[in-house]
Amino acid sequence: xxxxxxxxxxxxxxxxxxxxxxxxxxxxxxxxxxxxxxxxxxxxxxxxxxxxxxxxxxxxxxxxxxxxxxxxxxxxxxxxxxxxxxxxxxxxxxxxxxxxxxxxxxxxxxxxxxxxxxxxxxxxxxxxxxxxxxxxxxxxxxxxxxxxxxxxxxxx
Length: 156
Description:
The strands form four sheets. A four-stranded antiparallel beta sheet has the order 4-5-6-7, with no helix packed on it. A four-stranded antiparallel beta sheet has the order 8-9-10-11, with no helix packed on it. It is mostly beta strands and 156 residues long. It is globular, with a radius of gyration of 15 Å. Strand 9 (90-97) and strand 10 form a beta hairpin. Helices cover 0% and strands 52% of the residues.
């Protein structure tokens, strides 16, 4: 129902929210001051963005119609690559720990969190295939920069 995207503004990214059914180009919901890196959008038009320095990004929430962003302090950082489940109940993202990016899923309602990958390699850019399966890019067993797509089942 909504489209969130990062638009370049003189070398800096800004986050925009658009309703694809509208002829409007959308509206800027997160300025370049926040240094947005990645975005996801809920069915209600709320935006979750990874933002900040690439070395220590954190997750922000921008409620549709509000002015400004709120840091999600209960999500330890560095965290990137947010992806909202099809049912809107969970957020998948990658968190760096010990030099590697690990795949994590968190329930919005309870805050219950599950780390799905543990190897000393990277698991990034999760995308929900359905409510129980995530696809993600990984360099495990391949070397940095030689990623492939893998999938993992998300426990209930």
